[in-house]
Structure formats: structure tokens, C-alpha cells
Amino acid sequence: MRNVSSMIRRIKLLSSLFEEIQEAETPLPPSSTLCFTELLSVITRGKVLIQEIKDASTLWGLIQLEFISNQFYVLVKEMGRALDILPLRLLNITADIREQVDLLHKQAKRAELTIDPRELQRREMLLEVMANNMMQNKKNKGYMDFGKMEELLSSIGLRTISDYDIEISKLEIEAQNQAGTGGLVVVSNINNLISLVSYSKSMIFRDGENEESKKESCSYLYNKVNDSSSSSQSMSIPDEFRCPISLDLMRDPVIVSSGHTYDRNSIAQWINSGHHTCPKSGQRLIHTALIPNYALKSLVQQWCYDNNVPLNEPNSSVSEEKSNKKNSNDAGADAVKMTAEFLVGKLATGSADTQRQAAYELRLLAKTGMDNRRIIAEVGAIPFLVTLLGSHDPRIQEHAVTAMFNLSIYDNNKVLLMSAGAVDKIVQVLEQGRTMEARENAAATIFSLSMLDDCKVQIGARPRAVPALVLLLKEGTPIGKRDAATALFNLAVYNPNKSIIVSSGAVDVLIELLMDDKASITDDALSVLALLLGCSQGLKEIRNSRELVPLLIDLLRFGSVKGKENSITLLLGLCKEETEVVARRLLANPRSVPSLQSLAAHGSLRARRKADALLRLLNRCCSQPHHSL
Q1: Spans of the ARM repeats (predicted)?
Q2: Helix residue spans in 379-421 (DSSP H)
Q3: What percent of the chain has pLDDT over 90?
Q4: What is the domain range of residue 264?
């Protein structure tokens, strides 16, 4: 909560600056536009993060304390870097606002990771209770101190039966969300929490609701009566109809590749600003197609009709905007070109400090829209950025490789980057980058380049490229591991690359990641393993793993839809080579057949088909008398 309050305070300080600039109505220097574009990204992500914390399970947030605090820390540091390029002296603002923004800038630069000691203490208490609960479940030992548990849950806002029910619902949703990323350990921990809260609820409230709960029920009924009389004056939009970005009614809901739904205008602005991740989950978008969510749109339309809410927002200035759009676009393109030429000149002739600043500004400029990426490449930035990849300055290298990643999102630039000899330099950064962020963005660049078939061939032919990706799988942060896994997946689509990936030790690392609750790439790891099954070396390595089959059986129960499909693919592929050996290991596990039967009945079409095939295969093995099974 301290991080949330601090972020809100910083944004309020910035809004004072924005209001003054709006009132001044004077032209802005180009570097301030870059700064405000980056601040827009930071504030949007901060808004999404705060909303996620509000909507998510409080107990799971306590478990994820360091991870959530670090997300705020990263946003504050990015805010500080954006303010580095804000020319305060050139802005028409009062001295008071200038001093406030300058102070905010200094504080952001000095900011450190903040974790509230009281929250740490609550988390330690929760972990202790969870450990006792697990011991009690496994060995019928241990004692749960309900007084301590009630005190803990009350301290985080769970005081009534309704609070407990809402928390259990949020934990169940979190278990579903984590099925494809967090792995079995995370899902197991969440299930432990659900068990703990449910048990505590039954014990704490076994004598009936306490007075506070009764008061809440009475208050709820009273409010319902009042709401029915004043609904025409104040309309509350259901949460499921609100866009996660704007928090307004989704009049045109669309689904992105991560599976989340947003209002078309909000997500289109997010993508056109150069972002390549889902705002809600942080997952990289494998494509930017916006698929209409007709089912939700129908529900929204019905709700609007029932509540007399206009479906289309009135916009009196549409025709005027259309008439001015072409002139505005032309002027914007000219401004971008002038800025890009100026920055490329700094890259070519400037000092190290000048190059660092110019590389950062190009990185931001390339982040915001396809036209910007095209123009930056046209003015000749790519060769200079390739040269800067070998810089001894960690920040110059990081900004250069990130700028190249942003440029590579535009397909024509992929060809230009390959022609400029960027791959060898990018692989060098991936292998020996001076910061982890530089290495991870190098992996993301390889992922982006490998979208083209020719690039898959050329990158796979580099002897150090695949081993460097596998190394990042071991050493990277969760984001870096995901970038490396998705890059390996793209490369493995080209069959000759599969044996290279296997010989680089990827199989063992990927199987270890399935057991790593902090890696958060379960689905990505399974996807790569399923592809590697298609080559003889990959099949041999996967078959030699003793841990994989039990993991896959558990993933059939707890995995995401995609995870279940890939798990059944791997099991079926293993059975085709060594049917009796794998069948024995499957039948020895009492959870395998029920999991397969459940999947055959309720899974996706692909999963049902493969589960049926595997069940038939196991049935044949059992029915043949000469088999030891």
C-alpha cells in the first residue's frame, strides 16, 4: 500500500505540470513530446498495476510482496529516466511547478526498492500458518492457531463472511490465471491458501455471523433499496463490462492474443504507441489482431438497453477531426523525421554522454508507432545503433539494443537489420551483455527477427545464438526467460534448428523450468518441448527424463488449456516410441487415467482427440495378455 500511495502522489504532481502546459497552449520542444509519451506509458502501466492489486487476492499479493514492489520500483525508475529528457527551462510553467517536477525527478532517480516492514511481518505470519496447514493435511500433525489467523486476516481487511467468500473467489481465479505460467508449485500454494481461508471461515464463523457481518448485511439491504430508487440518477457499470485500461464501459470489446478483453479504442492506442505486451498480464502479444468479443458485446448492448445508457459516445468534432487528419499526420511525420535526423547526427559525432542520451531518445521514439519506426530506419539510424551494441558503456548498449528491438517490430526493418549485420552483434549482447536488461532485450530482438522464415535460417546458423538463448533461460529474470523461450520456439519451427536447440542442452533446462514456481513460463516451456519432440534427438532427450511424466500428469489436472494440450501431445509422442514403458509409468500413477478421462470429456477439441487416442492406446496395452502390464 505504501508503493500504491507513493505512485499516486507522483502522478498527482505530474498532473499539475500537465494542467499548466495545457493552459499555456504554447508549442512544445520535440524532446518534451518524447518525455510525455514515455510518461503516458508509465502512468498507464501504473494505473493497470494499481487496478490489478485492487482486483486480485490480498493474500496472494502478500505472498508476491517483493515481485509487486519491484514492479513499482521499475516504474519509478522509468519515470526518472523519462524526466531526464524533459527540458524544464524551455517550458512555459511557473517556478513553483518547475521546482516540484525537479524535486520529483531527483526523488525518482534516488528511489530504492520499498517494502513495508509491517507487510513483511504479515507475510512471515502467513507462511508460518501455511506451513502448519500443509503439515496438518499431510501428516495429521500440527495445530492451527485460529486466533492468530483471524488477527492476520483482519489486518488485511477480511472481517466478514462476505470478505472471506470474495477472497476465496479471487484465489480461485488466480489459480486459473497461474495455471499456464506459474507452474505446479504456484498452483499448489494457491490451493493451499484456498483451503486455509475456507477452513478458517468455517471455524471462525461457526457460531454464526458476528455483529459486524450482520451490520454489513443490513447495510447492503438498505443500500439496495436506496439504489433502486436512485438508479436513474447514478449508474454503476459492472466490473466485467469495464475496460482494464480506461476503466470505462467497453462499447466495442475486442480480444488480444493473450486472451484478455479490452475496449477497441483503448487497446488500439496502447498498441499504436509501440507496446507489444498485454497491459493486464504483461504477456508478449504474438500478434496484434483485435478479435471482436461478440458475446460480451451482446451483453453490454443488452445492459445499455436495460439501463437507458447510450451505446455510442457523442462526438461532435468527428467531421472536423477527419478534415484535419491528413494535415496533422503530415506535420507529425515531418517532426519525427527532423527529430530522428537530429538524433542520428548525435549518434554519429557526439561524446559518450551525448550518444547515451540520443540512443535513449531514439529508443523512445521507436517505441511509438509504425511510422516512427519506418522513418527512423529511413534516416539511417540502424548502422549507428549496430555499432553502439559494442559500446563499453552499459546504458548506451542497453538503449541501442532496445531501440533495435522496437525498430524490428516493423517488418521491413527486420530485413534492414539483417543486412546491416546486426545479428552477430545482437548475439554478442545476448551472451555477454553488460546489463541483464540488455541481454533480455537482445533475446526479444531475436524473437522479433525470427518471425521471418529467412531470419530463422540465418539466426540458427550462428553457432553462438542458440546456446546464448539457453543460457538466458537459466540465468534471466522471468521476463528474460519468456523472451528466450519464445525466441527458441520461433527458431524450432524451422526443422534443422531443432537438433541445434537440443544439443545446446535446452531440454533439461525447459523441464527444470516446469518445476520452477518463479519462472512463470510453464506454457512457453511446454510449447518448445512439444516442438522438439519432432526430431529424433529431442525425443531421445525428453524420453530420458524421469521427472517429466509425473509433471505432465499433474499439468493435465492443473494446467491452462494450452498447457493441457501440449502435455497430452508430449505424453502421446512418448508413447508412440516406447509404448509399454511409458504406459507402465502412466498406469503406475493413480491420477493419470482420471485426468485423461476428464480431459477427454471436458477438454478443448484438440485435447479431447489426443486424450481419446492415449486412453485407447493404454487400453490396448492392458488388454494384450502377453504384456506384463
Answers
A1: 380-422, 464-506
A2: 381-388, 394-408, 411-419
A3: 28
A4: 239-307
